[in-house]
Amino acid sequence: MRSTLPDISAVELRRLIASREVSPVELMDACIDRIESLNPAINAICATDFTRAREGAREAEAQVMRGAALGPLHGLPLGVKDLQDTAGLLTTYGNIGLRGNVPGKDNSLVAKLRAAGAIVTAKTNVPDMGAGANTRNPVWGATGNPFNPALNAGGSSGGSAAALAAGMLPICTGSDTGGSLRIPASLCGVVGLRPSPGLVANDARPLGWSVISVLGPMGRNVADTAMLFAASVGANPRDPLSYPVDASAFWPLKQVDLSTLRVGTTEDFGMCIVDPEIRRVFRQRVEAVRPLVASCEPVNLQLGDADRAFDTLRAESFVAAFENTYRTAPETLGPNVRANMEIAAAITLADRAWAHLEQTRISRRFAQAFEQYDLILAPVTPVTSFPWTELYAANIDGQAMRNYYHWLGLTYVVTLATNPALALPCGKDEHGMPFGLQVIGRLHADAQLLAAGQALEQAFEASETLRRPQPDLQALQAARPELKSIVTHPPEFAADQSTGGITAV
After folding, report:
1. Catalytic: which of 23, 175, 180, 196?
2. DSSP state of 373
3. Could you tell me the residue range of the domain that residue 218 belongs to?
4. What CATH number has the domain bearing residue 466?
5. What pLDDT is recorded for position 481?
6. Which of 23, 112, 123, 156 is an active site residue?
7. Which pLDDT does position 480 carry in this prediction?
8. What percentage of the chain exceeds 90 in pLDDT?
9. Annotation marks residue 363 as catalytic
10. How many domains in the chain?
11. What pLDDT score was predicted for residue 285?
C-alpha cells in the first residue's frame, strides 16, 4: 500500500490519519520515495527538508496515538513554493543572489499551515524571482511537465503543479499575480485557486494595499484545494488587506445543483490573442457544459485597455520589490525582472493614475456581468504547453507578443478584476496535454465558486474526455531528460544539510 499512498486524495489521507488507518510516518516515507523516484524526470522539487519532515511525521503519529486534538491538515506532507520563506530551509526565489538564503522564520502562510498540522517537506521550483510563466532559473534549472518533460510546466507555481500531478505531495502552496497559480495548474492537470484579495494574508507583499498579487492553494482536486484553502484564510496584522473570516465557510464544501447555474462564456475577453486550437477545445467544453446548467451563453465584458493597465500596475509592483537591487546589483536579476523594470522607467504618475482608474472600470464591468451570471468560463492559457527551452510564447496565432507576459492575457484580465478564479482540469487538448477551464466567480464568493467547481468536476468525472488526466508515472520513472542546462548549483548546497535538508535536484 505504501507505494500507492501518494495517489490518495489529501482529504481521504487526512481521514485515514485521524482513524489510525494510515500512519503519518508511512505517508511521509511514501512521498519521499515518490520524490526520489520521479523528481529526476521533471525537477519539480528543489530544496528538501526530509530529516525534519520525518521528525514531524513521527510527532504527528504520536499525537494521533495519544488522542490529541488534530489540526485540519494534520500529518499531511506540504510543498511550499520557493518564493515563500520557510524557517531553516533554503529559500532561493530561483535567484543566484539568494542561493544561500536560509530564512530564520516562516512567512505568514507557511506558519499558518504548520499550525494546522501540515508538515513542510520540500520547496517547489519557480522562475527567477517568480517572473514569468515558465518555471526555470539559474539555481535549480527547469521544471518539465509531467505529461511530457520536454515541455514546460507553466509558472510561476510550476514546481507545485508538477509535484501534485506526479503525486509527490498531496498539497502545495502557490501564488498568483498574472496567472502564476492558474497557468501551471492548467498545464499540469491539477486545481489551483486564485482567491479574492485579502482572504489569505501575505506579510511579505511589498505594496501592502496592492490587490494584484495573492497567495492561494493548489491540489489534485477541488476538495483538496478547498481543505487547504480553509486552513490558509484569516487576518494577519502585518497584511492590511487581510480580514477575519470563518474558515468553515470554505470547508466542507456545500452541494451545488448545476442545473440552477447561469453561465457566461468568453474565448478571449474580447481582447486576448488565443490560438485556434485552444478556441476549438474551449468551444467543445462549453458544449459539454451547456446541458448541465440553466443557461450558457457568450458574455461581452468590454474591458477597454486591460493590457496597458496591467503593464503599469505590474511595473509598479516590480519597482516596489526590486528597485534597490536593480540599481545596485542588476546582474543578479533575470531578464524578465529587468524587462519589467525597463517598462517602469517610462511610466509617469499620470499613467499610474490612469491604470488604477482603468482597473476600477474593469472590476465594475465584471461586477455588472455577475448580476446576470453565476459563473464565467474562459480558457486559462492561449496555447498548449511549449518546450521549456523557450522562455515564453513569443508568437500566438501569427501575432508577436509585446513582452514576456503578454501571452498571459487570459489570466491577468481576471487579476485586474480581482474576482476569484479556479483553474479546473477538463480533459486534454489536441496535443494530448492537459486542458484547464478558468472558472470565475463573484468577488468574495470564493466558497460558492469552489462548490460550483466541485460540482463541475464531479460531472466531468463521468466522461473520459472531460475528467482530469493522469500522467504516465512509469514513463516518468524511466525518463531522464536534461532539465539542468541553465542551472548553476551552489556547491555548498549540493548535498543534504542538517541546517535544512537541502538537496540540489
Report:
1. 180
2. -
3. 2-493
4. 3.90.1300.10
5. 64
6. 156
7. 67
8. 88
9. no
10. 1
11. 98
